[in-house]
Every structure is written in structure tokens, then in C-alpha cells.
Automatic annotation (TrEMBL):
<dbReference type="InterPro" id="IPR010998">
    <property type="entry name" value="Integrase_recombinase_N"/>
</dbReference>
<keyword id="KW-0238">DNA-binding</keyword>
<protein>
    <recommendedName>
        <fullName>Core-binding (CB) domain-containing protein</fullName>
    </recommendedName>
</protein>
<feature type="region of interest" description="Disordered">
    <location>
        <begin position="122"/>
        <end position="152"/>
    </location>
</feature>
<dbReference type="InterPro" id="IPR011010">
    <property type="entry name" value="DNA_brk_join_enz"/>
</dbReference>
<feature type="compositionally biased region" description="Basic and acidic residues">
    <location>
        <begin position="139"/>
        <end position="152"/>
    </location>
</feature>
């Protein structure tokens, strides 16, 4: 059954008078998203043993940093800042690359976390902060510890 055009016009006019847009109504109709503290147990339960081994410590860092925030409030800049912190605080070992791989693994962990949220229907792929992460070749310089050397 189609709505009465006169009633629709009156409703639109009243919404315009209130300064309410359709986007306002749609945004308020969405359920609140879980916080990192609330959602992490679901992510851990769904992860396989390899993902847990590789990403658990990074997911826990994310939760310590943003635990009481909804998962859609973290920005790409927040992730980049956390990546830099992870890179700078990585343990230096004999085969260390200055934390570069720790930073890359953090971004992979964030992608896995948000891919789970996408799969669960909590966010859209375009709303995923790691999806908005950009990397440039300047961020990935050739390793100074490369095993191969040029031979003339």
C-alpha cells in the first residue's frame, strides 16, 4: 500500500521545519556499536590458532588503548599513531629490522579485527579504519640488512 502523497509532503515539510534530514533519521536508527572491550571476546572466539598467536597481543593493545570506545570511533590516524608506537617499542634483537615488521603486523591485526566486524554486519567495508590506511614506498625502504649483495 502506497503512502498518501499529501501526508508524505506534510511529513517532509515538518522535518524540514525541524531541520532534520533523512540521514539524521537513519543514523539515529542504527544500534550502538560495541566497544573494543565488549567486542574483543567475540573476535578471540572466532579466530583460529594462527591468528591468535600472531594477533592476540596487538588486539589486547588496541583494547587497552581504546577499550571504552565504540569500534567505529577509531580513525586511520589513531591506527597510524599506534603503529608508530608499536614500531618504536619493538624489542631489538639480533635479527631486528627496527620494529618495521611489528608495525606491519599491527596493521594486519587491525585489519583482521575490523574484517570480523564487517563479517558480523557491524560496520560497512568503507567504515573500516585499516581500509583507509595508506602505505607509501617511503614507509617501506629496502632493509639495510638485505642478505643479497650486488656482484659485478
Amino acid at each position: 500500500m502506497a503512502a498518501d502523497p499529501a501526508k508524505l509532503a506534510a511529513a517532509w515539510a515538518y522535518l524540514a521545519e525541524l531541520g532534520v534530514t533523512l540521514a539524521d533519521l537513519q543514523h539515529d536508527a542504527r544500534p550502538a556499536l560495541p566497544t573494543f572491550d565488549d567486542y574483543l571476546p567475540q573476535v578471540l572466539a572466532a579466530a583460529g590458532p594462527g591468528a591468535l598467536r600472531a594477533y592476540r597481543s596487538y588486539w589486547q593493545r588496541m583494547t587497552r588503548a581504546w577499550g571504552n570506545q565504540a569500534i567505529d570511533t577509531v580513525t586511520a590516524s589513531d591506527l597510524q599513531a599506534m603503529r608508530q608506537h608499536v614500531t618504536n617499542s619493538a624489542q631489538a634483537r639480533r635479527n631486528s629490522r627496527g620494529g618495521r615488521h611489528a608495525g606491519e603486523l599491527f596493521i594486519a591485526a587491525a585489519r583482521a579485527f575490523y574484517n570480523r566486524a564487517i563479517a558480523d554486519g557491524l560496520i560497512q567495508p568503507t567504515d573500516s579504519p585499516p581500509g583507509r590506511q595508506t602505505t607509501t614506498t617511503a614507509e617501506h625502504p629496502k632493509s639495510p640488512h638485505a642478505r643479497r649483495t650486488d656482484r659485478d
